Amino acid sequence: MIVAQQKPIKDIAQMINDCKKVLFVGCAGCVTVCLAGGEKETAVLASAMRIKRILENNPLEAITYTCTRQCDPEYIASLDNQVKDVDAIVSLACGVGVQYLAERFKDKWVVPALDTKFIGGSTVHGVWEEKCGLCGECILHRTGGICPIIRCSKSILNGPCGGSQYGKCEVNKDIDCAWQLIYDRMKALGKLDKLMEIQPPKDWSKSRDGGPRKAIREDVMIDE
Amino acid sequence: MPEFEPKIVAFCCRYCAYTAADLAGSMRLQYSPNIRVVEMPCSGTIEHGVLLNTFEKGVDGVYIAGCNLGDCHFLKGNVRAIKRVAAVKKILDEIGLGGDRLEFFHVPASEGTKFAKVANEMTERIRQLGPSPLNKSAAGNAQKEGGQTA
């Protein structure tokens, strides 16, 4: 999932300081699962903003709505009637959702309430870790299911480097050395010979180095 | 000018504080009439949004009363409530209402005296803090009496 975290309340308040009526839009996708921008978080933020603005003698009318997803046009279409008389829209989605709202509601001031952090998953309740580097060409079959692109601080393909000490990364002793994990797992699987294959330089044009990316499935496209 | 009488909501776990309230009554203990008790199946069922909404409705103070650590009927509900209260106190500080208006207390079922003590303590704390700026009735009364609103 995409993992995001809420911005400080004062920063969000600053963005909508001159607005009298604001629509807070949550997203029932990834940000609900990482407890940053779901229905509950949207209600809490709206409530906090209403209280803050009353205390500042600048009352705010804050309404809320949570879309099934903000990253699909059909799910934000249901906002069309609600945005008509608002001065601003605060999106509690990832950066994708904010852009979808800004694109659909061209005459509205759309602002983000979250900082989009990374692609990852939860380890225990309340803790999320980065797991995928979105490199565009997965190599997990060569590395025992452990991604060196994002979990190795240097993203090296033929590790470990000299900074690996007692299974930890030199960047921070709380970070596991991804290449130590890869070695241990491949050893347990009896596949250490696969690590002897030297990996050539990665084609980063399939990642962000090739500019913004697009994925197309022509077989599912609907002709107009 | 009459003394400010705070309006306080006490979310009480049925396995401890709510039972302690019954005991306080049986013991004929006198405690602050300013609290409004809400029975909860467990203090751990409290949510951030409920606490903020309670303040938005204009109450001057809120507290959650749960079991002693290790005594929760659902094992860790009170631990979760303590963490949520801490998080909402931080929000209240950030938005300017003040986290002191919210608190968590441990009130075992066997301690009616502690239930009364906590009710009095919280009432006194909120009285010192003054009416919540969101409490329209308190602000109105203060203005009628020529006092200052917070």
Nutshell version of this structure?
The complex is a heterodimer of chains A (224) and B (150). Chain A has 224 residues and is of the alpha/beta class.
Radius of gyration of chain A: 22 Å
For the termini of chain A, the CA-CA separation is: 32 Å
Give the C-level CATH assignment of chain B: Alpha Beta
> Main sheet of chain B?
4 strands, parallel
Round the mean pLDDT of chain A to the nearest integer and report it.
96
Rg of chain B: 15 Å
Order of adjacent strands in the largest pleated sheet of chain B: 2-1-3-4
Spatial order of the strands forming the largest sheet of chain A: 3-2-4-5
- Using CB atoms under 8 Å apart, which protein chain pair has the greatest interface? A-B, 15 and 14 residues
State the order of secondary-structure elements of chain B, H for helix, E for strand: EHEHEHEHH
Describe it for me?
- The complex is a heterodimer of chains A (224) and B (150).
- Helices cover 27% and strands 23% of the residues of chain A.
- Chain A contains eight helices and nine strands.
- In chain A, strands 3-2-4-5 form a four-stranded parallel beta sheet, sandwiched between helices. A three-stranded antiparallel beta sheet of chain A has the order 1-6-7.
- In chain A, strand 8 and strand 9 form a beta hairpin.
- Chain A is elongated.
- The two termini of chain A are 32 Å apart.
- The relative contact order of chain A is 0.12.
- Chain B is of the alpha/beta class and 150 residues long.
- Chain B has one domain: Rossmann fold (3-Layer(aba) Sandwich), CATH 3.40.50.
- In chain B, strands 2-1-3-4 form a four-stranded parallel beta sheet, sandwiched between helices.
- The longest helix of chain B is centred in the middle third of the chain and has 19 residues.
- The radius of gyration of chain B is 15 Å and the shape is globular.
- Chain B starts with 7 loop residues before the first strand and ends in a 6-residue tail after the last helix.
- The C terminus of chain B is likely disordered.
- At the A-B interface, helix 3 of A face helix 2 and helix 3 of B.
